[in-house]
Amino acid sequence: MSELVLKIENLTKTYTLGKREVQPLTNLNLEIKKGEFTAIMGPSGSGKTTLLNIMGCIDKPTKGKVLLDNVDIGELPESQLYKIRRDKIGFIFQSSNLLPYLNARENVELAMELAGKFSGQRSERANELLATVGLSGRESHRPQRLSQGEQQR
Ligand SMILES: Nc1ncnc2c1ncn2[C@@H]1O[C@H](COP(=O)(O)OP(=O)(O)O)[C@@H](O)[C@H]1O
Ligand SMILES: [Mg+2]
After folding, report:
1. Which of 23, 53, 103, 134 could anchor a disulfide with 58, C-beta 3.0 to 4.6 Å?
2. Residue 51 Cα to ligand 2 middle (Å)
């Protein structure tokens, strides 16, 4: 069980705003193995969200390598990145980003539909998953009727 799922080598991220540059990440190195839980801690503005966005294939490194299952995601075009986001990344945002006009079950089903999975049994599977996170009975509630923590679950 020492398989590396994520390896980051000398990652630098620079944002350019007009003439001003902000560099929240400089030569960062990190390895995460399969099955490991890792917490990233630091003060506000230290680059946590920047790092998570890069790990989650939402943003690109300025320099350095990010290897996810041995694939350098910095080299991939958007046409490949979306598949990695869809199939390999689970992202719980601070604000949940659920679709407000879909209920809890339909929001869960949407991800299965986009991935082409569980065809013909999406509702049942979504109900099972909602039960797993303690949300039985809330399947038909829209996000606005759920607390922020419930939305994240
Ligand atoms: N898109 C952006 N353009 C310019 N600067 C940014 C952008 N995103 C984040 N920053 C800057 O990068 C630094 C790190 O931000 P962030 O990763 O959000 O920190 P944290 O999540 O640790 O609070 C901050 O100084 C922030 O202002
Ligand atoms: Mg943040």
Report:
1. 53
2. 9
